[in-house]
Amino acid sequence: MNSVAELQLFRKRAYGLLGNGRDVLFDLMDSVITSRKLPSFAEVSLSPRFRRQWSSLYKTLERSKPPADKLMRLYTDSLPKGNRLVLAGDHTAWPRLWSPTLKERTHEHQPAWAPGSKPITLGQGYSTIVCVPEKSGSWVLPLVHERITSFESPLEKAAHQLKRVCQGMSERPISLWDAEYGCARFIQLTAEVACDKVMRLRSNRVVYGPPPAYSGRGRPRKHGDKFKLNAPNTWWAPTQQDECVDERLGHLRLRCWDNVHFRKTATHSMQLILVERLDADGKRTHRPLWLVGTGNTVPPLDSLWQLYLRRFCVDHWYRLIKQRLHWCLPKLGTSAQTDAWSTLMPLMTWQLWLARHEVANHTLPWQKPLAQPTPGRVANGFDTLLDTLGTPAEDAKPRGKSPGWPTGKSRTPRKRFPTVKKTYSKPKSKAKQVA
């Protein structure tokens, strides 16, 4: 099956899963992919690919409920075969500072735009799990992209998504996570998930070695010596040590310590890895990279750190959907609309992935041709492929002219909702509960 037939089959299967409003949703996706710039969300209706009226955009997003689980199974069935799956997870914010009528707005983290400013915004957070299909480039294949509700934390949402994604997989995948997920809480939440994990650690973390042999008196110890990442005097001799020269990063020193654990997860053994960049004199030139791996099939030391560098493709995908696929452009008023619109982001990305070999490298006058097309370049040439692909959506049917708002009828202001501030309360100790 060639790539055009594969893309047509994928679009047909996705069309059958979308349910209500699928014709409008497909016209919407084709219009968004082929529109490089959009001043407002309503102007999507001006695209030649959109065959409806502008008001159907908001009505369809409100009434349609794209099934995220069924679409996720469609994505997993379309994953490349032959190699071990590499997953990556992260979360991002959709800023909605001036939307008091949007329910469940929360305080979310976003990168600070200026030194000294607080990295906080008001809006909705979204958690994502993607598959990294290639060893180089910026392509990812998103499997699930969902809103983090006001009663969930990013760690809980990511653990729930990882469990759903890994169910039914014949081979055990490996997942890559940022420093926020490098903690005991995430280890506890994903302990039963059939997936190996590699997480980055902050430099102020503390881990513990294996406990010494039981002395015969008192309760057996759970923890061994304390290992502070930012205190080299607490380190013991590494289990493995190696040095290598990378083409991009230069001289590297790799060290590994086996059988370490967090304080709250003493029964979950981990592998601690330190990656350092050295100059000609053997002195460290950059901040060290601390990694921790869990699972029985973690790659060896010399390839593990290279594998972790693929995690940053998630950031490329977030930039793609925010800048090129206009994810944060519409000022939608309800959570149902934002959820439906966000569910379309992975679906559009998958269509770009399947079309990458059929779309020529469309470059702007100031851009250089690329040997491997990026998602943005494929989106620029996707319009030329749509004439060959066609669309599974049916033509628009005339419904008459709406009478509009009745004269003299008063309009009720929309209800405003307070901003939800999430808090974390430590569980009470058993001694206090008994007292």
From TrEMBL:
Residues 389-435 are annotated as: Disordered. Residues 36-241 form the Transposase IS701-like DDE domain. It comes from the Bacteria. It holds the Pfam family DDE_5. Residues 411-435 have a biased composition (Basic residues). NCBIfam families: transp_NF041680 (NF041680). This is Transposase IS701-like DDE domain-containing protein. It comes from Adonisia turfae CCMR0082. The lineage of its organism: Bacteria, Bacillati, Cyanobacteriota, Adonisia, Adonisia turfae.
